[in-house]
Amino acid sequence: MYLSHPVRRMRDDPLEAETVELRVEPVDDDARAKLSEYVRSLGGSVERELQFGGVVVALDEANVSALCEFDGIERIETVDTLGY
């Protein structure tokens, strides 16, 4: 799985009480459906679907590490990095 540099920083050294929006690219439609449930279990939400298969999720930085453990993700990047 590809993680952008800012996502690796959040995973390894999260800021407390900070919420982040991330662009997550699931490997397939089945993973996308499970990802939505998993993000909700972490206290986050799926904010929107993107045109080419990605989704934008919002969650606390403290939960980025748990998101990275989800099997079925191709890449995770910050939304700001991509200019959304």
UniProtKB/TrEMBL annotation:
Domain Putative peptidase inhibitor: 1-83
Origin superkingdom: Archaea
Record InterPro entries: Peptidase_inhib_put_dom
This protein's name: Putative peptidase inhibitor domain-containing protein
Naturally occurring in which organism (per UniProt): Haloferax mediterranei (strain ATCC 33500 / DSM 1411 / JCM 8866 / NBRC 14739 / NCIMB 2177 / R-4) (Halobacterium mediterranei)
